[in-house]
Each structure stands twice: as structure tokens, then as C-alpha cells.
Amino acid sequence: MLREWKKEGGTVTLVDDWNILYRDARIISLFGIVVSSNRVLSPQSIPCITENIIAELMLLIQESHDPIKIVINNIGGGVNDGFAINQAMEHVKVKGIEIWTINICQAASMAAMILMMGTKGRRYVLNNTITHLHSGTTNPGEARPEDLDSFMKFAEKHFRATFHKWLLENTKLPEYWNRTSGAEYSEDQLAKPAIRLKLVQDFLHGERYLVASEAVEAGIADKVLMPGDPIIDEIYKVLSIGGRTNV
Fold it and tell me: CA nearest 83: which of 130, 117, 56?
């Protein structure tokens, strides 16, 4: 966002701090609600987070192969929207570009999935943050009962199956939930795909809130960042000033 400041002798255009970080630190902010333009906009989602993030990812991969950082303080949102962002992230990673994700306050629901889908080893949570996961809902809006039943069967087969696959591939949720829930499956049992899937499904059967250390223990993130950690400076490091003149 550009701001103008009137002073004697003319108008000086100031560049908003987040705008500077967006291009020069290769940062994308995931604040508000994960939402698309086909939904009613709320004051927390201006204008359309999903399309903006995808466009920013596609732009940044053309500029360089330096890491892209997604800074998260988000309560989640639409399943379709999260799907779209995660698939764009997968495209970026296949190109050989790291995506660093960092939860600076809360990463809930779909935002937690986006946190998890960062490059392994580069998924961070600040020390006083909350990460939240649940089974989620897929609401097709107004529909006839028979249509709703058909949609729910599709959602169960496609959306939830994909989420379960992502969680199994990118986290240590089976081990975490086996330990914390008291399920007590043996190592041999934990090696079985059916048991691992059951543990993930059981974990998601409820609202699960994790503090920073628990998010790392569950494999949703890789490291807790304490105040003063040099990685925080590295995340916000401006790579170039793009020819701008600071006023």
C-alpha cells in the first residue's frame, strides 16, 4: 500500500513497510481469513487472500530462487482456498525454491496446514504461539438434500483423503498422538499405514490446540524461535532495496 505525505515543496510518496518486505525480503503475509473472491469478503480478508498469495508466489518464483517466506497470523478459512494455496506451494517447492513458514501468533485450521506445507526444516513457530487443527468442514452452501449427500461423499473421498495424505507425509502426528493419547501402539504396529491413518483421523476428531513445543513435537513445525533468534532476522532480511529511496 502506498501512502502520500504532504510537505512543503511537493508530495513525497512513502512505501508501506509490509510492501517493502513483500518484494525485498520475499515475504508473503497470511493474515486475516483464508478466503477467495467467490466468497463474501469480511473486514479481515481484504481483498482476496487466496488469489493474492498465489499471484505473489508465482511472481516471486520468477524473480529469483531465494527462499520465499510466508508469515502467518491467521484463523483459517475455506477448504478449497487452502487447497489452492497448498498446491501453489507444492509447485514452488518442485521448482527447487524453499518456502519458509512462520507462525507469529496463531495458525489455525487451514492456516496450520499451510504452516505444515512449508519446506521441511524451515517451518517455524514463535515461542508463544498456538497451532490448531481439526477435521474441518466442507460446506457447499444451499443445496438439495440429495446433492448435499453426494457432495459430502465426494468431500470425504477427495478433500479429507488429501489432507490425511499431507499430514502423514509432512508431520509426525501418528507418533505424537500415539504417545499423548495413550493409544500405545507398538513400533511394529505404527509402521502399518492403516494404523497411522487411524491415529491421524483420531487426532483430527476434535479441536486440537498445540503450543509451540507441541507443534514441533507433532512435526507440524520444525523449530521454536525464541526472542533474539538470528533466524528471525534472516526471515525479515531485506535482500535488495529495489532502487527505492527511503524518506
Answer: 117
